[in-house]
Amino acid sequence: MPRLARLRRLGGKANGASGPVVGRISKPASVAAIVVPAAGFVVANIFYPNQQELVMMMVYLVMAQGINVIYGFTGYLPFGYAGFFGAGAYGLALSVMYLHVPAELGVVFAIVAAVVVAMLLSPLLRLDGVYFAIASLAATEALYVVISNPSLTAITKGPYGVNLIAVYNSNASFIAAVALVIVAMAVAVYLRSSRFGLALRAIRNDAVSAEYAGLRVVQHRAAAWLISAALAGAAGGIFAWYTSTFYPDAVFDTSISIFAIVFALFGGVGTVWGPALGAVILFGIYNAVGISEPQYFQLIYGVLIVLLVLFLPGGLAGLARHLVAGFNRIRGGAGRSASPLGPRTGDG
């Protein structure tokens, strides 16, 4: 118990996201956070005609939750996060082409490929701040150069792209995307309500003090790194399965990382619902404006980023917390003024 108390003090507040400690998320709220987003996409698929947009929205929701794991709970911001996405896409593609596994099993190979890449890049965790961000971006570019190398066309198909039309199944891949959303939300719930997640927040706030408190800082950071990579790899695998045809520059595109990061920050990192809401709202804006009028979308996107940095460092989740806290203060003040037990005035 003394150790848990130290963790509570260390991990109670995270940069940009104040966090409930272990046990603060009720079981009904946890179940709702896991089930409601998935159910929403299933219902939307019935009434909304563009299934591809729904799949891409789910893919970015999972990517945003992956950023939430590595940045919201450890403070590492990977500009090269798309590398895990691309590794997952090619993990599924190569397993389907050469091992002739079904696409459902190919998603497992996608996760394995991303985790292997994350293990190879784990020395990057020795870096901090902008050095880590730039190094992760450079590693992704190096991976892209290897995959798209014309000399490896016989293996990776090089710059000519991959064709998986033989295993294309839009409905099955949609169901897989829904299942992945459930997993991603479950991971976020676990990190917000477990000792492991509390330990990660403690390490993010003060790694030295966390180590003195008995935490294995390196192992905890590595575990978060691998979990984040696994989510991105699964998202990349499902993307490859659903689209069935893609090129290396499509899955290793830096904009994938930027989108996932902005979605997570807009919603609020270190929270359960924040990245999901950010992905749904901003990707919805992108589909409404960005495709038909890209210049206006870039303007809207730029303004949103500026407003986010200046006024909403905690994202939508931080705004909601401030509004709730303000409402509680107002209600508490009204209650005290109306209380018959309040301080008396007069000559008493």
Give a quick account of the main beta sheet: strands, pairing sense, barrel closure.
Answer: 2 strands, antiparallel
Beta-strand portion reads: under 5%
Kindly, what is the distance between the CA atoms of the first and last residues, rounded to a whole number of angstroms?
Answer: 48 Å
Query: Which regions have little confidence, pLDDT < 50, spanning 5+ residues?
Result: 13-23, 337-348
Q: Write down the oligomeric state.
A: single chain
Taken from the alpha-carbon principal axes, the silhouette is globular
What is the element string, with H for helices and E for strands?
HEEHHHHHHEHHHHEHHHHH
Number of discrete domains: 1
Helix content: over 70%
> Rg to the nearest angstrom?
22 Å
Class based on secondary structure composition and strand pairing = mainly alpha
Question: Order of strands in the sheet with the most strands?
Answer: 1-2
Average pLDDT confidence is 85
Number of helices: 16
Number of strands: 4
Task: Describe the protein in words.
With 348 residues, the protein is mainly α. The protein has one domain. Helices cover 73% and strands 2% of the residues. It is built from 16 helices and 4 strands. The termini are far apart. Residues 13-23 and 337-348 have low confidence and may be disordered.
Structure summary:
By secondary structure, this protein is mainly α.
